[in-house]
Design goal:
515 residues; alpha/beta; Aldehyde Dehydrogenase, Chain A, domain 1; Aldehyde Dehydrogenase, Chain A, domain 2; six-stranded mixed β-sheet; 15 helices; 26 strands; disordered N terminus; binds 1,4-dihydronicotinamide adenine dinucleotide; Aldehyde dehydrogenase family 9 member A1-A; oxidoreductase activity, acting on the aldehyde or oxo group of donors, NAD or NADP as acceptor; Aldehyde_DH_dom; Ald_DH/histidinol_DH; Ald_DH_N
Amino acid sequence: MLRTLCVRPAGVQAVLLRRWTHNIPAIDQPLNFINGERVEAANTDKTQEFELVEPATGKVLRKVQSAGKGDVNRAVAAAREAFDVWSDMSGMERGKLMTKAAQIVKENEDDFVKAEVIDTGKPIWEARYDIQGCTETIEYFAGVAPTIMGTHLPLPGGSFAYTRREPLGVCGGIGAWNYPYQMAAWKSAPALACGNTMVFKPSQLTPITAVMLAEAYVQAGVPKGVFNVIQGEAETGTLLNLHPDIAKMSFTGSVPTGAKIMANCAKGIKQVTLELGGKSPLIIFGDADLENAAKGAILANFMTQGQVCSNGTRVFVHTSVLPQFLDILLEKTKRMKIGDPFQEDTMVGATISKAHAEKVLGYIEIAKNEGAEILYGGERVIPDDPKLAGGYYLGPCILVGCHDDMTVVKEEVFGSVMSVLPFDTEEEVIRRANNTCFGLAGGVFTKDLSRAHKVVSKLQAGSIYVNNYNVYPVGVPFGGHKMSGIGSENSLESVNHYTQVKSVYVEANDVDCPY
Ligand SMILES: NC(=O)C1=CN([C@@H]2O[C@H](COP(=O)(O)OP(=O)(O)OC[C@H]3O[C@@H](n4cnc5c(N)ncnc54)[C@H](O)[C@@H]3O)[C@@H](O)[C@H]2O)C=CC1
């Protein structure tokens, strides 16, 4: 018996016990969540349908009806109506309900984890780590909610001014497919803590856990309509983006889509947070602890099948330690078990889709043609278990003999492909590291901390790791510089992105006016 969340259509919320025939929690129910309940999209246009495919097996799990104009309108209207109630509550009241929602997620953690594995194909221990860490984000913002306040400014003669930090209204959220629960949590938690309501569209490739989170909020007592989920592809996202009652968009995805979202927001002068792609540098100096540096390089390249925006895919290694570093790296990478994401010892699960796997393999082919040498991996692996034969498993790929002009070194691959690039001097490596339009993340491995901080100050990116990589503790802002985005998430900074300031002048004397 697996426990799962389900909001009964009658509006009575309860944790139901249910036996899942295929061990798939909450998948066979409607996947739009509007005004406190799961609903089918009313859009009957068959061209709007998309298939939900399990990456691990390549099996079509079900068809999902995209939200059309009427569905988007209904979701935004529900969020608009809920806004008055939700924004009128104190931060303390909102925070208590959010804490309860986080508790409900924890009580049902197994279901969330399994759903995330089914959706993404990532190893189960990674999915567990994601669910736990991002539920902490909800708890964090639940604690932040009562602290959101304005300021008081004394003025001459007893007059004064004060500021109010007010919510924006209905916020739109759109997510990518690599961290589906994270996107729903990182966007909804600060939005709701600040008193906004939200309509969220997960990626069409990973629709499940955002709906489960929506159920947890309602079950905790968060009013219906505060957090809604709509399903669909670009068309649904555009409808949400252009809706006149949407006050702000928070988007995670590729640079080209981010540019479209921003252009659409400009039409309505809407605020925007953009978490976009990257091509980040990881610099390993000659004095680095090479064991740690190799672990860092793996964390920076091979988690979630390499489909991580902040990945440090350009690994710059000082020429003095290149052979030793590659030996350690190779030995560790060879030990990574590829296969069933539901096995606890699996280190490499399935790539999100056939199309994406082919794109990644295409980049490796181009790299070979441009003169790179494959030190390890870079091919499709078909696991022994016949049920996994339809999944797309790729061996983590280490490329050597790379140079900065190669396509694979310049473009975001978003797959397990690490390019190793030798360097000689600090000045040279900083210049080469910054030679990109992206600026999401970067890393430095060295025992010389004064050098580390000097290099950190010169690197053009939003998140830099010293002697580690790809860790995201809640409270530390995460966001990109340059074309990697605008604004940041997962920290107090988000409060500024989800509120607006109102200044109030209060006169204590007669009006001083010549008229
Ligand atoms: N900076 C960050 O925090 C992160 C950035 N990413 C980036 O996301 C990309 C991979 O994710 P994908 O899902 O392939 O990106 P994508 O840009 O293709 O799609 C992202 C989302 O936007 C929606 N969408 C597509 N076209 C749209 C349009 N015209 N209007 C509105 N919505 C639209 C999609 O349905 C999906 O939900 C990579 O570039 C990666 O670096 C991914 C995760 C985190």
